[in-house]
Amino acid sequence: MLRIAIYDDTTPHARELAELIDRELSSRRRELEGFPSPDELLRYITSGGYAPDIAFLGVGAGGGRGIELGAKLNALVPACRIIFVSDTLDAVRDVYCVEHIWYILRSELSARITPALEKALSSLEAKRGTGLVIRAKGRAVFLPLGELLYLERDLRRTLIHTESGEYVSSERPCQLLGGELERCFVRSHRSYWVNKSKISEMESDAFILRNGQRVPISRGWRAAARAAFLASES
Length: 234
Known about the structure:
Elements: E1 2-7, H1 11-24, E2 30-35, H2 38-48, E3 54-59, H3 65-76, E4 81-86, E5 102-105, H4 109-128, E6 131-136, E7 139-144, E8 148-154, E9 157-162, E10 165-169, H5 173-176, E11 185-189, E12 192-195, E13 199-202, E14 206-209, E15 214-216, H6 222-233
Parallel strand pairs: 1-2, 1-3, 3-4, 4-5
Antiparallel strand pairs: 6-7, 8-9, 8-12, 9-10, 11-12, 13-14, 14-15
Helix pairs in contact: 1-4, 2-3
């Protein structure tokens, strides 16, 4: 799931931007969140565990709050790719104190949004490789595929079991395991998703991982889990 944050204190501008982004990314699973103030976005990140992949930040005359927000995003969510949108070129020099992907004039938005998004997506892929990005202790954390063991859904949280410890996310496994990552996991139970590369063997009621851990296989998921396991072995 691609998460995109939009900060613009002018509602018509924010709506126009959201429509353009939605059209450009129509083939991708995405979630757009609009924020009328920097404080609201920062609160959502620090208190709600939100970690946007891309942030479009409106920049007023002289930069102002949009640039300050970009600097805070650099610190809180280093993996987030920032695209500034402005009515003028007044702040073009000031934005270089913030790590960002593009500076777009609003008058050129429809023409420039495609290359800006392509660059942001390309940068995300190059930076992340294959793995999960979650919120942990107020920061965005990247968990490489090679360290992931299995995901466990427990009530309203997802426990992410890795070789180095356990992490917690409020997102469902189906939201975390999008795109290429989804093909790397096999579902064995209503509440369990297992990294195929970590499976050593399969028993009738459990996968045995290479580190000796057992992950349950329920009766309802046994046939699908067996088929996925045999396919990964062939």
